[in-house]
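Changelog-adjacent note: as of this version, every example in the card shows the full chain rather than a window. The one below runs 124 residues end to end.
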Amino acid sequence: MNEILLYAGSAVAIIWGIAHIVPTKNVVKGFGQISEDNKRIITMEWVAEGLALCFMGFLVLFVTALGDSQEDASLIVYRASAGMLIAMAIWTGLTGARTPIIPIKICPFVKTVVAVLFILGSVL
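Full-length structure tokens:
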């Protein structure tokens, strides 16, 4: 059961990360007329968050698939990833989720769900 939760959390994190990266060009355009430096910064941050989500998803996926999901090192990976996702969810809740953009509003919820799946997968 724990591995199902871990795989599900991994899949959601990877999909959410990819969904974060794909529309980057349109997101930047949505800011209207801004400087090239600001466009680069928004692009950098938007892609970085997507890559971080994909990284955590793939890390948990590979640790689970290639190792023992109840080893100490695996548990550290699951719980550290969950902690980072909670930190990212809080940050998004305090910043981006305060905008009217629906995907950004649900982002803290998605990150929290994945964190809970990783935590449950590490204790069951």
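Structural remarks: Residues 2-123 form one domain.
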